[in-house]
Amino acid sequence: MIDSGLVELPEFTFSFHKGAKWMHKALEQHRGGAFEFPNHSYNFLGCLKYFCSSLILVLFLAFGLFFSYWPLIALSIPAFYIVEVQLIFLFPVAIDGSKRPLQDAWKLRRKSTSLIEILPITMLIAAHMLSAVFMPQKAIYRWCTGCLAILLIYEGTRNG
After folding, report:
1. With contact defined as beta carbons under 8 Å apart, do 65 and 133 qualify?
2. What pLDDT, on a 0 to 100 scale, did the predictor assign at position 132?
């Protein structure tokens, strides 16, 4: 969809709202029709999701360092993603007009597959997205292809 030019890459931004608008356009393109972009506080939803994920990462690091217990430090990244993956469908569910996006995203993820199955997939998508650090000229492309992967998983889960 991106390589074919069907979905245009957005300008660089740190706004969850603008990212949600891009995801909305990608869903419209994938579904073959327009639908309303719901009025949610996407910046709040994104900040909440990543605050919770980051908090667990910091706690693992802090306790690992404080007690010199290196396994906790090593588990800090997987712990981040264990929390993050619980709301993997937060933006797509909100974009689809959910009145309770946090609850509905949680329920859909739990319905979709086990944590053991979705966690490695999510971490691979995240690695793809974060590898943009080493290729700044491809940053937006890598970020958008990662978001698109999540949208396609969402569509398969929603329709399956």
Report:
1. no
2. 81
Query: What is d(CA 12, CA 40) in angstroms, rounded to the nearest whole number?
Result: 21
How far apart CA 8 and CA 5 sit, in angstroms, is 6
Q: Which residues contact residue 112 at a Cβ distance below 8 angstroms, ignoring those fewer than 6 apart?
A: 89, 118, 153, 157
| The two structure tokens encoding residue 127 | 């690695």
Cα–Cα distance measured from residue 39 to residue 49, given in angstroms and rounded to the nearest whole number:
18
Structure tokens given for 63: 């306790």
Give the predicted TM-score (pTM) of the model. 0.86
Report the pLDDT averaged over residues 119-144. 88
Number of CB atoms found within 10 A of residue 106's CB: 17
Q: Express each pLDDT in 52-91 by its tens digit.
A: 999 999 999 999 999 999 999 999 999 999 999 999 999 9
Are the C-beta atoms of residues 19 and 91 closer than 8 Å to each other?
Answer: yes
